Fold this sequence. Notes:
alpha+beta, 24% strand, globular
Amino acid sequence: MQLEITQACIDAADKDREAPRRRNPCFICPIAQALRSEGYKRVSVGEAGLLARGHKWSLTNAAADFMAQWDQGYPVRPTTLELEETA
């Protein structure tokens, strides 16, 4: 599956990260925002992979690099990530 990370996803994640009641980054990162924009619910993104109700994807190198950059506070740019669904 190709997942498009738009500037809107990045902006929403940055806004959530700066909110006074900051949520866990695995629920608000740009990748999680993009999955939600595709209609997936209960999204979580972490080193073990990407989870959404009834679905699981392995974390590709590109997705891991993108996630690490954002987690460390570096600016990220819109991109498209290839995700491989696992059983």
